[in-house]
Design a protein that fits this description.
Blueprint: E1 3-8, H1 13-24, E2 31-37, E3 43-49, H2 52-58, E4 68-74, E5 89-90, E6 96-104, H3 107-116, H4 126-141, H5 145-153, E7 158-166, E8 172-178, E9 183-186, E10 191-194, E11 206-209, E12 214-219, E13 225-228, E14 233-234, E15 239-240, H6 256-262, H7 264-272, H8 286-289, H9 292-296, E16 300-305, H10 307-324, E17 328-332, H11 333-336, E18 347-353, H12 359-370, E19 374-379, H13 385-389, E20 392-395, H14 408-428, H15 433-454, H16 457-466, E21 472-477, H17 482-496, E22 499-504, E23 521-525, H18 532-543, E24 548-553, H19 558-563, E25 566-569, H20 578-596
Helix pairs in contact: 3-4, 4-5, 7-14, 7-15, 10-14, 10-17, 14-15, 15-20, 16-20, 17-20
Fructose -6-phosphate binds next to helix 10 and helix 17.
């Protein structure tokens, strides 16, 4: 959700903070703001509704001096996007400025108490309540800011990553976190704080990840002092970042999303590297191998995820059930966490999350942990909260995904799930040696086949122009391709704002077929697999009602070519790996339709990359 960046050191803070905000803008982008403290002891806040570029415009004639500062890009929770609701927020005396990512759940009660004590509120945010509370506690206890923050956080229910600076506050930034990530970058005589490492990496690769319910005092010239909310001192290992700057740039593409779609052959090779051995005959997935017995004796697998990651989980169900005959349930984390679900101690829980910070998935993990089940994480962001809260796991290794619509992380999630299921199926002997090595060989060929699909980009761009003004879309698939229909529809709606629904093709006749007419494009995944004839019948039913069909087909699909209005050809593969190929043209189709509609593809309205609020 919101992005946080802070700087304390010997350079001017403003350019570092603004550049950092640009890098973090994918986390939230309805307003942005900055607080700077300078040598004269002043504390200035500049903030505005809109993008970081609007903030830069606004700051053009302002005093932007200062080598200590904090800055924020917002994804609104409490209070509409506006100049007033933008962060940072001042305390009553305007002596403290605070930025916040997360939600203060008991803000309403606290606000009433503060109003009764003479505090005034300018915004509708929960964040302003926190900064006022800190000042109230500081004055009441006649204590310093760090201690006041510590006391205030004990009063708070909710999730937060915060950073504060104080007027004349002799060279320090105070930060704290609970359920929202916060990282401290350690430079040479300077420190950076941020909600993820992306704005830090160009200055230093040495970072510390703050743990839940910890605070840090980051002062010029001293190592950060880290304590818990209950004042226990902590020391943390310094982590070396593996990220590099080029991963954070568009590299000549118009949008991060297009770059990330085109990166998929490489990212999948990276994801498999070292995991399918050089002979191509064995899977070496240490997280699963180290826990082999647990996996083999699992009564059931429960997959927890949200959004695109949930769609990956659905494909995972097909993998695990067909390769290893282990029953699988795929749950929306947000429903699971409040459902009082039945979880057995010998269940394996797999949490899938690109960001590794999704609040609902983190809470679902906590719930599952209470039942004693083993929890495995599939995350992309190294060191993220979910990767640290799980018992073991596999990273997807695709590098930073900046486009808000997930693409390369999704195909890598599928790749990890398929490797896990293949390994376990082979160990359980539910897949024999011959089939195992054949499937591994085919999985290894997927990146080359994606390369081939990417060569159709121009043709898919042409096709997209026919559908720019469609108001609705239906996506159909069956078997392994049913989750791909859901994911194709999600990609289209989130970046083009066209209403789109995905269905298992045979479900059409149970209701949705009523929607079919000439105005309703239907994207049908009709590749040459075991369900081909069945899908063909479903498509015939749509054509009989004048529907317009865009079909994803293989070279061999003669019948579908006759029936469909438009076709997109993809290479053929084993049924189980089709999702890895078939999603790619759907990503491209969504991308081009959104570009035709002049949508902000990388930062679609109302969305944010990392959903750290429930
Ligand atoms: C859609 C998308 C979201 C995320 C969802 C979960 O393109 O990216 O649906 O998949 O918010 O996020 P993670 O995977 O970070 O847990």
């Amino acid at each position: 959700m919101c992005g946080i960046i802070g700087y304390i050191g010997f350079r001017d803070a403003y350019p570092i903070l603004v550049k950092g905000l640009h890098r973090l803008e994918y986390r939230g982008y309805d307003s942005a703001g900055i607080a700077l403290s300078n040598l004269s002891g002043s504390l200035s806040i500049y903030k505005t509704k809109g993008r970081v570029s609007d903030l830069e415009e606004y700051c053009k004639d302002k005093d932007i001096s200062g080598s200590i500062g904090i800055a924020h890009t917002r994804w609104a929770t409490h209070g509409e996007p506006s100049n007033t609701n933008a962060h940072p927020h001042y305390s009553e005396s305007e002596n403290i400025a605070l930025i916040h990512n997360g939600i203060i759940e008991n803000y309403a009660v606290l606000k009433q108490q503060l109003i009764r004590n003479g505090y005034h509120f300018r915004s509708n945010t929960d964040t302003e309540v926190l900064v006022q509370l800190i000042e109230y506690i500081k004055v009441l206890n006649n204590t310093d800011l760090f201690h006041a923050v510590q006391l205030a956080l004990n009063e708070i229910i909710g999730a937060y990553a915060i950073a504060l600076i104080e007027k004349g506050g002799d060279n320090r930034i105070i930060v704290a976190r609970k359920s929202s990530p916060l990282v401290i970058g350690i430079g040479d005589g300077e420190y950076f704080i941020a909600s993820d490492a992306s704005p830090i990496v160009e200055y230093t690769k040495r970072v510390i990840y703050l743990e839940d319910e910890e605070l840090a005092l980051v002062s010029r010239g001293f190592s950060p002092k880290i304590v818990t909310a209950r004042n226990v001192e902590k020391t943390h290992e310094i982590i070396q970042l593996e990220m590099n700057l080029s991963q954070l740039e568009k590299g000549g593409y118009d949008h991060f999303m297009l770059k990330e779609i085109f990166e998929q052959p490489k990212t999948l090779r990276d994801c498999m590297k070292g995991r399918i051995d050089v002979t191509g005959k064995h899977i070496v997935l240490s997280g699963v191998m180290d826990n082999r017995e647990r996996f083999l004796s699992a009564r059931r697998i429960i997959i927890l995820a949200c959004g695109t990651s949930w769609h990956a989980g659905l494909v995972g169900k097909y993998f695990f059930e067909s390769f290893c005959r282990i029953p699988v349930e795929v749950e929306y984390s947000s429903e699971f966490r409040y459902r009082n679900p039945v979880i057995y101690g010998d269940d394996i829980v797999i949490a899938i999350s690109q960001s590794g910070e999704t609040a609902d998935t983190l809470a679902a993990i906590e719930l599952a942990r209470k039942s004693g089940s083993f929890i495995y994480g599939i995350c992309n962001v190294v060191g993220s909260s979910i990767s640290r809260k799980t018992d073991s796991g596999s990273y997807t290794h695709v590098g930073p995904e900046i486009g808000v619509a997930s693409t390369k992380a999704f195909t890598a999630q599928l790749t990890v799930l398929s490797m896990m299921a293949l390994y376990l199926g082979h160990e359980k002997r539910t897949i024999d040696d011959e089939r195992y090595s054949f499937l591994l060989g085919e999985l290894n060929r997927i990146p080359d086949k994606i390369e081939k699909i990417l060569q159709s980009n121009a043709a898919i761009c042409d096709l997209s122009k026919i559908f720019t003004y469609a108001h609705n879309f239906i996506y159909l698939g069956r078997g392994f391709n049913y989750p791909i229909a859901l994911e194709g529809a999600l990609k289209l709606k989130e970046i083009s704002y066209i209403h789109a629904e995905g269905y298992p093709a045979a479900e059409m006749k149970h209701g949705p077929i009523a929607l079919i007419d000439m105005e309703m494009p239907v994207v049908a995944i009709a590749t040459d697999n075991v369900m081909y004839d069945k899908v063909m019948s479903n498509i015939q039913e749509i054509k009989a009602r004048n529907g317009c069909v865009i079909a994803v087909v293989n070279e061999s699909g003669a019948t579908i070519r006759e029936i469909a209005d438009y076709v997109i050809e993809v290479p053929s593969t084993e049924d189980c790996f089709e999702p890895l190929l078939n999603i790619v043209p759907l990503q491209l189709l969504s991308y081009h339709i959104a570009v035709n509609k002049k949508r902000d593809v990388d930062m679609p309205r109302n969305l944010a990359k990392s959903v750290t609020v429930e």
